[in-house]
Design brief:
It contains 16 helices and four strands. The protein is about 75% helix and about 0% strand. By secondary structure, it is mainly α. The two termini are about 40 Å apart.
Length: about 400
C-alpha cells in the first residue's frame, strides 16, 4: 500500500493537471471534467487517435458507471452494516433499508441538507478517529517494533519456507496491497478528477498538488495509522500474521471496532460504527455523483434519474451480500476503470510535463512566460484574465 501510494501521488497529480487542462463548462456554467474529457479531447487530438480517444472515453464512462456500484456502493454499504451489527446488534437488512432511504433522500429526493450536515460532521469524526488511533498506538507503543517487523515479514513472505511459497506470498502481498491502496486513494482510477475539475482553481499544477496531498494523507497517514492500530491491539497474531480467535469471530470488516473496543470499551466500538457509517455514507454520495457524470456523458442528462434509482436499489443489495463478493466486484470494476484512464495519462504525460515546467518557470524562477491554463483557447483567455 505504501508503494502504490508513492506512485499513486504521481498518477493523481497527472490526472488532476489533465482534468483542469481539458475541462469544459456545461449549459449551466459549471465546470465538467474527468478522464472521459481528456481521453476524447486530449488523446483524441493526437494524429490518428481521434477514434481511439472517443472509444476509450466511452469505455471509461461505462467502467466508471459499473465501478460506482462496486467501490462506491456495495463494498461501502457492506462495511457499514457489518460494523453496525457488531456495535449495536442491528441486523444487516434493517441497516440496509435505513441506508437505502438515507441515500435515496439525497440522490433521488434532492435533500441536500442531509448531505451538507454529513459534510460538516465528517471532519470532526476524522479528527476524533485519528486521535483514537494515535492513543491506541501510544498505549501499545512497546509492540510497535514487532508490528513493523510483522509488516515487512508478511510483505516479503520471510516466514515462508520453500522458494515457490515465498514467490506466491510476495505476489499475494503485492496484489492485495495494490488493490487496497487504489481502493483507499482512487489514484489511477480517474474518478476523483471529476470533483477536482469542478474547482475554481485556475492553475492546473496547483490542483495537481492537492492530488498528491490527497493520496499522501489518505494512504500514507490514515491507512498506516489504521494498520498500526489493528496490529498493535492484539487482533492479529504478529508471529503468524493470522487473526486471533476472538477477532476471527467478528470478521475482518470489524477489526477496527475490535481494536477500539480493546482500549475504549463498548464506547470505542460504537464510535467506530458511527464513524464508518458517516465516512462510507459520504463516499457513497460522492460516487453517485461520479456515476451520474459518467451516465450523463454516455446517455445525456435525462438518463441520470434512471441511474440514481438503480444506484439506490443496489445499496440494499450491498447490505445483504457476502463481504468477499462485494470486494471482488469492486476490485474487478476498479481494474477495468484504470485501463483506459492510465492509457490517457501515459500518452498525455508530455502535456503534464510541459504545464509543470511552465508553472515552475513562472512561479519559482520568475520568468516572464505565458501561463498554460487550458487546452482550449477560449477558456485559456478567460482563465488568464482571472490571474491578472
Amino acid at each position: 500500500m505504501w508503494l502504490i501510494a508513492f506512485f499513486g501521488m504521481m498518477t493523481n497529480y497527472s490526472e488532476n493537471v489533465l482534468g483542469i487542462m481539458y475541462r469544459r463548462k456545461n449549459s449551466e456554467g459549471e465546470w465538467c471534467g474527468g478522464a472521459m474529457y481528456y481521453l476524447r479531447d486530449g488523446l483524441g487530438a493526437k494524429k490518428g487517435c481521434k477514434q481511439i480517444g472517443a472509444v476509450l472515453a466511452v469505455l471509461f464512462s461505462c467502467f466508471c458507471l459499473l465501478a460506482s456500484f462496486g467501490i462506491g456502493n456495495m463494498s461501502q454499504v457492506n462495511s457499514m452494516v457489518a460494523n453496525v451489527k457488531t456495535a449495536f446488534g442491528i441486523p444487516e437488512l434493517a441497516t440496509g433499508i435505513f441506508l437505502c432511504v438515507a441515500v435515496g433522500a439525497v440522490v433521488i429526493g434532492g435533500l441536500k441538507r442531509v448531505a451538507s450536515i454529513t459534510e460538516k460532521i465528517v471532519p470532526f469524526m476524522v479528527i476524533a478517529y485519528l486521535i483514537g488511533t494515535v492513543t491506541i498506538i501510544i498505549t501499545n507503543i512497546g509492540s510497535i517494533p514487532a508490528v513493523f517487523s510483522s509488516i515487512f515479514k508478511g510483505a516479503f513472505a520471510l516466514k515462508s519456507a520453500a522458494g515457490g511459497v515465498v514467490g506466491a506470498g510476495i505476489a499475494t502481498a503485492m496484489k492485495m496491497g495494490f488493490k487496497r491502496g487504489v481502493f483507499s486513494n482512487e489514484a489511477g482510477l480517474g474518478s476523483s478528477v471529476m470533483v477536482h475539475s469542478n474547482s475554481n482553481v485556475k492553475e492546473p499544477v496547483r490542483q495537481g498538488m492537492w492530488g498528491i496531498f490527497e493520496v499522501f494523507a489518505d494512504t500514507i497517514i490514515v491507512c498506516t495509522l489504521t494498520a498500526l492500530t489493528i496490529l498493535s491491539s492484539g487482533a492479529i497474531d504478529l508471529t503468524t500474521g493470522q487473526m486471533t480467535a476472538e477477532a476471527e469471530a467478528i470478521g475482518s470488516s470489524s477489526l477496527m471496532s475490535y481494536s477500539f473496543g480493546q482500549t475504549f470499551g463498548s464506547l470505542g466500538v460504537a464510535f467506530v460504527a458511527v464513524a464508518i457509517l458517516l465516512f462510507a455514507y459520504s463516499t457513497v454520495l460522492g460516487w453517485s455523483h461520479y456515476g451520474s457524470k459518467a451516465c450523463e456523458y454516455l446517455f445525456g442528462t435525462k438518463s441520470i434519474i434512471v441511474y440514481r434509482v438503480i444506484f439506490v436499489l443496489i445499496v440494499l443489495a450491498g447490505s445483504v451480500m457476502k463481504a468477499q463478493l462485494a470486494w471482488d466486484i469492486s476490485d474487478t470494476f476498479n481494474g477495468l476503470m484504470m485501463l483506459p484512464n492510465l492509457i490517457g495519462v501515459l500518452v498525455l504525460s508530455p502535456v503534464v510535463a510541459k504545464v509543470t515546467k511552465n508553472y515552475v518557470d513562472r512561479r519559482l524562477h520568475n520568468k516572464n512566460v505565458k501561463p498554460i491554463l487550458s487546452a482550449f483557447p477560449d477558456i485559456q483567455a478567460e482563465q488568464e484574465k482571472g490571474l491578472e
